[in-house]
Amino acid sequence: MGEKKNPAVKAWEMLRNALGLYRNSEYVNDFHNQANLQSASYMSMVMMVLELVMIIRYIKKYVIEEQICNTVGEFFHYTKNYWILMILAVITVIYAQMYLRGKIKINRRFSELWTVIFAGVCMYFGYEVSFTDYTKGRMFLCFMTMVIYVACLLIWRPIISIVMLSVIAVTFLEWVGNNAVSRETGELIGIDEGDRINYAIFFISLIMVAISIYHQRQREAKKSEAIEKAMVTDRLTGAPNMNRFYEWALHYIDKHPNTDVIYLYVNIANFRTYNNSFGYMRGNELISDVARSIAEAFPGEPYARQANDHFVVLTRVEGCRDRVEALRQRVISHTPDELYIDINVGGYRPKGEYNDPRLEMDRARYACSLLGNRPDEHFIEYDDTMNKNYLLRQYIINNIDKAVRDGYIKVYYQPVVWARDRKLCSCEALARWVDPERGMISPGDFIPVLEETGQISKLDKCICEIVCRDIRSRLDRGEAVVPTSVNFSRLDFGLMDPVEELERLTEKYDIPHRLLHVEITESALTDDPEALKKAMDDLHQKGYSLLLDDFGSGYSSLNVLKDYNFDVLKLDMVFLRDFEGNANSKKIIKSIIDLAESLGMKTLSEGVETLEAADYLEQAGCVRLQGYYYGKPMPLEEMYQMADEGKLSISDILT
Ligand code: C2E
Ligand code: CA
Ligand code: CA
User: Fold this and answer.
1) Which of 40, 111, 243, 634 has the smallest number of CB atoms closer than 10 Å to its CB?
2) How far, in Å, from the CA of 511 to the mean position of ligand 3?
3) pLDDT at 1 exceeding the cut of 60
4) Where are the domains positioned within the chain?
5) 242-382 sits in which CATH class?
């Protein structure tokens, strides 16, 4: 690096560049070929017009005025050169235009051969006409025109222009110089000294023009190649990107019509932790390394980086498992032992004639997503049972806006009672999707999909609005109202501003803040603690109660209690699952309740299904109870009807 080059080497390199003595990429060669065909097309149009004019001129002069030519045979005999050139020009225009518009796909060499043949014919006739003219005492013009024409037609490498035009120049000067005999006097005319110099200058200028056009095209070709490459290349890894993949995949399928193929979606398992532990740069290196490993494991087959740590591949079914396994081993062997990294692959075999690779790929991706929590499995193929879930998922993604707009999203309310007297003290708003086509879709199905696709805030805004509207209409009728808790997804704090949204709605419907509780699930608290803390402080300050949902279902439970300020801790229903037979469960429940109390939090138990559970929880000091024993989630009116019918009585104390 930085080493000075030998002047001789430098000079040779400059010369090589000037003469075009280097290999061009396929792209650049195609670019030159297209540019040549484009100019061939223009020049041939000129040629067509010229020959037409010549034919008309012939008819006017020799057929009409002088009446020398009287038969059709004679006419074609004397005008045959014009016709030949015209027909070749027409063929060239048609061929060039069809080629440039992609209507015909012929090897580049054929275009080159054709232009050479056409050029040769032009030169021949140009020479013939000019030679005759010259011997009659006229100038040597037609040939010169043809030389310009041919030079423009065959702008290949500078070296070719130089050799070709020099050979033409020398043979021309020699041939005409030695053979041109005056028709009038029979003496050798030759070419005189002054004209020789002029002809030489003409040829040299022409060579320079051809070289300069070549270099200009070369620069353009390189620039356009770079742009095009950037458009189909992934910036980080240099691997192909998805644009390229779709094109490549279609081409691959076209080329292998009788091969069973499979789309693979490749995901680096545990990448997030790797990134967090080793930093961004190392994460990027890992991604680039996986890209290289994929290229090695699937040589010559379409692949691309889709996004983040996800890749896609299209490969033959035969031996596919082995190649996936080879990829896994390669990646595992390249990563440090301290951390678990693996490769998960979802596969989808396209069915039927032609399908959009985007949709096929999405199925492979879906299959791969199902591997997420199965550490012992690393390859899964899309099958019919998945298909049902996949279609539901697509339906959800495509219809959430419509569902919100057309009122398919409903709120069901589940009662919450005081443990001490089992009177209704609040309720939880739970989303339901009652679809006219598919019936009831459960939140377990649509919430994860909406979270994954970043659409969960649409649902949560809608639920908050319905809850506020429901409360307002009961208040307007002077009916009793209990506080309602709404669930916010952890993603809501990034997708929208939950504080602002609640403020907007409580103002719009004029709802006292104490009537709304906010549930945030425990797993939310690992993402962006500062932003979330701020949002929670704001909510608190504005008078909304905060409930820590699903406590005990994740890992970070105790830290969460230390760092955040909740009013109510909701014990996850896992604690009650084997409550009867497991003495430890009772102890754990009791300790959590005590711990919460000592930190100034009230407790609520979810999933209370039996009187025994309720009694134990009451005795252990749990403050509120929620579960099927007191009521499943139900429409608003139904819940209050239970109160009216005496199945539930509304407590006087509602805070
Ligand atoms: P979650 O917030 O923990 O809600 C409690 C879930 O437990 C509800 O399921 C409820 O029907 C169920 N459940 C209540 N009592 C019992 C019981 O005694 N036994 C049993 N086995 N289950 C009981 P659901 O309505 O299917 O909701 C599931 C989850 O979906 C919710 O869990 C919540 O995480 C989410 N979700 C529901 N609605 C919304 C919403 O509007 N926004 C957001 N972001 N998430 C929601
Ligand atoms: Ca909840
Ligand atoms: Ca819960």
Assistant:
1) 243
2) 25
3) no
4) 23-230, 242-382, 392-644
5) alpha beta
Query: What are 206's two structure tokens?
Result: 């022409």
From the CA of 572, the nearest ligand is 3
Superfamily of domain 392-644: EAL domain (3.20.20.450)
pLDDT in tens, 91-124: 999 999 999 998 888 888 888 898 899 899 999 9
How are strands ordered across the β-sheet holding 342-348? Answer: 303-307, 310-316, 261-269, 342-348, 379-381
What pLDDT, in 10s, does the model give residues 376-386? 889 999 998 88
DSSP 523: G
Protein residues within 5 Å, CB atom, of ion ligand 2: 487, 519, 549
pTM given for the model: 0.66
Q: What is the pLDDT of residues 542-586, one digit of tens each?
A: 999 999 999 988 665 677 788 888 999 999 999 888 778 788 889
- Closest ligand 1 atom number to CA of residue 550: 3
Q: Is 414 in the pocket of ligand 1 (CB under 6 A)?
A: yes
Q: Residue 628 contacts by C-beta under 8 Å, 6 or more apart in sequence?
A: 607, 608, 609
Mean pLDDT of 183-195: 88
Ligand nearest to the CA of 460: 1
The pLDDT of residue 2 is above 60: no
**Residue 454 C-alpha to ligand 2 middle, in angstroms?**
19
What's the 603 CA to ligand 2 centre distance in angstroms? Answer: 14
Contacts (Cβ under 8 Å, ≥6 apart) of 416: 424, 425, 426, 427, 428, 485, 604, 624, 625, 626, 630
Cα–Cα dist 626/320, whole Å: 51
Nearest ligand to the CA atom of 442 = 1
Task: Tell me how crowded residue 95 is: count the other CB atoms within 10 A of its CB.
Answer: 21
- Substitution candidate for ligand 1 out of 409, 459, 487 with most atoms within 8 A of CB: 487
